[in-house]
Amino acid sequence: MRISIDTGVCIGAGQCALTAPEVFTQDDDGFSELMPGREDGAGSALVREAARACPVSAISVSARET
Fold first, then answer.
1. Residue 23 is part of which domain span?
2. How far apart (Å, rounded) are the C-alpha atoms in residues 66 and 31?
3. How far is CA 36 from CA 15, 32, 66, in A?
């Protein structure tokens, strides 16, 4: 699984960090970012829920290409 955050769209609502705090955090300005080493998301259902919870759809989750 590959996780992407469109930083140009993110408004810093923080729903991702609340839903999947082991994968998402917020930077000093309050915008979403991935926790170090969590780019693959480990297949967590909470990551998909965090993407759905984003009010501006700034998070995308896709299958990792082999």
1. 2-62
2. 30
3. 18, 12, 22
Phi-psi region of 11 (alpha: psi -120 to 50; beta: other; left: phi over 0): alpha
Query: Which 3 state secondary structure label does DSSP give 65?
Result: coil
58 contact partners, CB below 8 Å, separation of at least 6 = 5, 6, 7, 9, 10, 11, 32
CATH of the domain at 27: 3.30.70.20
Distance between CA 29 and CA 49 in Å, rounded?
23
pLDDT along the chain (66 residues), means of 10: 92 96 94 85 81 96 74
Total domains in the fold of the chain? 1
